[in-house]
Amino acid sequence: MGDIGHAMSVVGRGAGYGIQNDFAGHGIGRAMHEDPFVHNEARPRRGLPLRPGLVIAIEPSLMAGGRDDYRIGSDGWSIVTADGRRSAHVEHTVAITADGPRILTLP
Fold it and tell me: Which domains, from first to last, does the chain contain?
């Protein structure tokens, strides 16, 4: 699992973005936001091994300007950058199969 977060951080930081790591990816199952937590920034070769049957949401959150500071919006749900710069959040759902990963959210 650490390889996923490491790859996202290498790409995001390399492009000059800040990374929000408190709210990130998660397991997909019968409840919202199940374990395991899928970090947006992590150390490689660490964490839970990817095994067939695991379904996860990978959710990088990148912030312009290279800072990691954020706040919760007045609606109690939105996450906004502390400095008011733009940010982006995307999500892909991935199933780990015996034949490798299968992205479930492709058009």
Answer: 2-103 (3.90.230.10)
